[in-house]
Amino acid sequence: MFAHYTYIIGLIVALSLFTSCFTIRVYENTDSPVYLSNAIDTFRKHSDSLVVLTFNIMKADKIQLAVSELKNFETLFPIDICMLQEMDEAAVQSIAQQMQLNYLYIPIVYNTMMKKDVGNAILARGKISHPEKLILPNKKWKNGRKRHVTIGEVNIDNRRTLVYSVHTETSSVSRKKRLGQLEAIIEHAFKHSDRYNYIVIGGDFNTLYKKDAQLYVQLFHAAGFECATDSIGNTAKALFGLVKPTEDFIFYKGLSKIKAGKIEVSKASDHFPVYGVFGK
Three-class SS of residue 230? Predict the structure, then answer.
């Protein structure tokens, strides 16, 4: 009887792995698709602070709840730059319109089961230019999925900031391969550091294990970046709250941190919105 159940479980796992190979289509072209909108005239009085927030809104499902939470946050700190992950274009457009922000959205895959694109976005209270998709190395073995970074230049108060919205691979891929993705991001930022006084790198780094989170912070620090969010505790929850990893970070260069935190009351995702307030 036990052997019979083992066979069934093995068959289910094999079938799951087989069908997962057909659930996504990777956008291999670095130039498309790209969705860029600077339709909002984002007038804002000159400010000495810059408010940056990153948020993985799981499957872009609870968009209206996410908007409500972000608007509530804005009663304290008006958001200047917002980095989003697990997004489709319609969801990005909806959030941008309701928050009165411009946006850059670049998907990396089309999910055939969900019937929509999945990717990262940058929203900003200023003009966004020079869009770029950085495709990260080391695809997932079971379905060929690749990860990427959405990159854009944000101009606020005539100050140019290079912004990276990141979503790296999960721990289902080896640490060595995940570190390869991190190194690709750091290398790209290093190459552009002579052109930008301000660089912000934020998103979901999928550091399920504490050791990974500590290692990522150390590697960014060695590359000249500070971590604004290293002391805010867990940023995600899983298994009914039993697992509380720190997966979402904001790294920066050229700015001075005033404060950082998370919106722990958020119910829109399995991740919390994570923010940093910076002086220029």
Answer: coil
Return phi, psi of residue 227, to 5°: -105, 120
Per-residue pLDDT at 46? 59
CA distance linking residue 117 with residue 46, whole number of Å: 36
Model confidence, pTM: 0.91
DSSP codes joined into one string, 176-219: HHHHHHHHHHHHHHHHHTTT-SEEEEEEE----SHHHHHHHHHH
Predicted pLDDT of residue 15: 43
Distance CA 154, CA 103 (A): 10
Question: How confident is the model at residue 13, as a pLDDT?
Answer: 38
| Residue for token pair 């457009």 | 93
DSSP 273: -
pLDDT tens-digit series, residues 82-115: 999 999 999 999 999 999 999 999 999 999 999 9
Q: Which residues contact 252 (CB under 8 A, 6 or more apart)?
A: 52, 198, 199, 200, 201, 225, 226, 228, 276, 278
Q: Cα 121–269–138 angle (5° rounding)? A: 55
3-state helix, strand, coil in the chain (%, to 5): 25, 35, 40
Three-class secondary structure of residue 224 per DSSP: coil
Given a contact cutoff of 8 angstroms between Cβ atoms, the answer to whether 74 and 54 are in contact is no
> C-alpha angle with apex 112: 141 to 83, nearest 5 degrees?
80
Residues of the chain with pLDDT under 50: 1-21
Query: Domain segments of the chain: what residues?
Result: 24-279
Query: Any idea which residue has 């989003």 for tokens?
Result: 84
* Closest to 91 measured CA to CA, from 265, 266, 268, 276: 268
Residue with tokens 């969705």: 35
pLDDT of residue 45: 56
Return the CATH fold of 24-279: Deoxyribonuclease I; Chain A (3.60.10)
Q: Which two tokens stand for residue 6?
A: 């083992």
